[in-house]
Amino acid sequence: MAVDCIVIGTGIIGSFTALALHERGLSVAVADRGGLAPGTSRSSDGNLLSSDKSGGVMLTLSERSLVLWSDFAARHGNHCEYDPKGSTVVARGADQAEALAEHVAGHQTAGVTCEFVDAGWERYEPHLGPDTSAIGHWPRDAQVQPMLACYQIARSLSEANVPYRFYDEITALEPGADAVTVRFANGDTWSAGHVVLATGVWSNELLEPLGLSVPVRPRKGHICVLERGDVEVNSKIADFGYNATAEDTSGDDAAVQTAAIIESTRSGTILCGSSREFAGFDRSVSTDTLRRVMADCIGIVPDLARLRVLRAYAGLRPFSPDGLPIIGPVDPDGRIVVATGHEGAGHGLAPVTGELVADLIAASVTHPYDGALHPERFTV
Hints:
Oligomer: single chain
């Protein structure tokens, strides 16, 4: 089979990339050895946030992607629990309140809709703890059920006759003068002018046999799921300290970082996170880390202490050394394109990533961030 573009990976990045390429009029095929959304998108909480970005490229990308998420739901229907519920960032103590006020002011200067609230925050979140000194509120931040978003896109593309191939190992990528051949374990081959690797922390498995690589490492994170109860959580609630852990690029192999982020789901359960650590490809759940996560969250919303933990899970974020996504071609002919390195911002940045990849492949446009996002920035 020959198509214009093959997308490998059906998580949120691969799903939006395949959709964007299809909507540009290219013929697309999609493959994933693990089925639909089997990796990081199955082990996360679906944050769509600008509130945790300090500024610069990541804030610009996040703001653009929030617009694209809204457009996606308007054009394709909301079958993925997309909910622009906003986010609330909590400061405790005078020093945190001052720093949060500066963070909000910086976002406002950049044109982001948000506000600093140093009194009366109960109207946003009535269960915040008594040591809350101030909050920042971002009304345009949102939440989505990541797997449902991937399923929704797959249904739409399948109905448009885009082929999907699951549970079949890709044994080789074979670049040629005019196309890339994708070879499967049973000997079948697909051919395309471009191949996009939206394979997260597993990207180098396909690149290294070609003598190529990207500096992506798995960064493990935990989430607790709490039972339904009477604790009202209206928005994404985050400890202001979460911003620092989300943007930390120290690469400390020994440390386990935790900071509170809390959200309700459509089913009534509450998700509590999160943690960050380098543990290779280990996705086992640590009870010690879960205790730390829950202690952080109860510190922000004390009433969570009366709810039981139903289950917990861990996933792997694709971490890049400078904290920015890695989007662009990695081979000399520009036919193998990677889209990875989003760390914990993958769901938020998925639509804009699809847009950027489609610009590169369908329109031969050099996107305006390629100096910051291009893979070759790590080799110059």
